[in-house]
Amino acid sequence: MYDNLKALSIAMLIVILDEFRIYFEIFLQCLPGKSGYLFRRIFTTFIFSEISKNVSIGRNVQIEKGSSIKIGSKCTLGDNCYLNSVGGRIEIEDDVSFNRNVHINASVGGKIKINKYCLIGPNVVFRTANHVFESTRIPIRNQGHNFFDITLFEDVWLGANVVILPGVEIGKGSIIAAGSVVTKNIPEFSIAGGVPAIVLKKRKK
To answer: Nearest CA to 112 among 121, 103, 100?
Structure first.
């Protein structure tokens, strides 16, 4: 009887502590201004395994498995960004800026690597995995996933509402027009756009 009560007490304590953590995170997410950025920066030091100095984290940023996420120096995560690396890894180098509502998802597997000086517009989606759908006799949700890495080389600019699909590499200095869906590699110093995205012209070096 005593052992059962002890086990129940421990279980309740774990639930209470987890709920307290959630409430505390919600409180931090709502803090405005420079003080909010500072407190979120301090708190996320304990979430990420590798986070550098001078990282600015906006309100309502959601992070899943920060131990598999690396963020370099002088990066900015805008309000409502979502990072999930439960099954994979996310690596963000120095001086990368994410606007609001950016979705960075490596939850099934694969790695998302974003190199220095990249600019990511609002509502951009990175996704390393796709559903398998070959069989028409099995619900798509039960057929599993396949996944591939995504890489942005240095100084890439993604406009608003761009979608980056699995296996894509975007070359150094390239620009992707707003609303594009990138399904194939884009060479360096290209301007690309469309659904699916194609190279429209080259930038002058």
So the answer is: 103
31-202 fold: UDP N-Acetylglucosamine Acyltransferase; domain 1 (2.160.10)
Active site (annotated) includes residue 131: yes
Distance CA 113, CA 2 (A): 52
Tokens standing for residue 185: 């590699």
Helices and strands, counts by H and E, the chain? 2, 22
CA atoms of 37 and 58, how far apart (whole Å):
6
The CA distance from 148 to 153, in Å, is 16
Q: For residue 39, report the phi and psi dihedrals to the nearest 5 degrees.
A: -65, -40
Helix axes 33-44, 2-30, angle to 10 degrees: 140
Residue 111 pairs in a beta bridge with 89
Q: What is the pLDDT of residues 44-93, one digit of tens each?
A: 655 555 666 688 888 888 888 767 889 999 999 999 999 999 889 999 99
Q: Where are the domains of the chain?
A: 31-202
Q: Which of 21, 131, 184, 202 is catalytic?
A: 131
What's the whole-model pTM score? 0.77
Give the tokens for residue 60.
């309502």
